[in-house]
Amino acid sequence: MNRNKMRRIVTLILWVILVVLTLVKGWWYPLAALFLLHLAEVFLVGIKTGKENATGPVKAVILTLIFGVTWWGPLRRQKDEL
């Protein structure tokens, strides 16, 4: 399994853990922090990176909200290497 796929899996696991903590313990702060971090990434990097890599804006927003830097980071590194 490649490194990028592992990072995305870890990100999904983090989301699940934070949702469970929110539902069971009422600890919504970490979930809110992760969401706000990814939301900031959408506007600062995600949409622009999506456009540069022929990804539609809706798909770029969804992927950035879910995966954050684990989605757009490899795309930017790949572009920089060319």
Please explain how this structure is put together:
By secondary structure, this protein is an all-alpha fold. The protein has one domain (3-81). The chain is 87% helix and 0% strand. It has 4 helices and no strands. The chain has helices at residues 3-25, 29-52, 57-67, 69-81. Helix 2 (29-52) runs antiparallel to helix 3 and helix 2 (29-52) runs parallel beside helix 4 (69-81). The longest helix has 24 residues, at 29-52. The chain is globular. The two termini are 24 Å apart. 18% of the residues are buried. The mean pLDDT is 93.
Keywords, separated by commas or semicolons:
about 80 residues; 4 helices; mainly alpha; single chain
Structural class: mainly alpha
Principal-axes geometry comes out as: globular
Give, in order, the helices and strands.
Answer: HHHH
Quote the distance from N terminus to C terminus: 24 Å
Radius of gyration: 14 Å
Count of the domains: 1
Largest sheet: none
Q: Total strand count, please?
A: 0
**Helical residues, percent:** over 70%
How big a fraction of the residues is strand? under 5%
Low-confidence stretches: none
The overall average pLDDT, rounded, is 93
The DSSP helix count reads 4
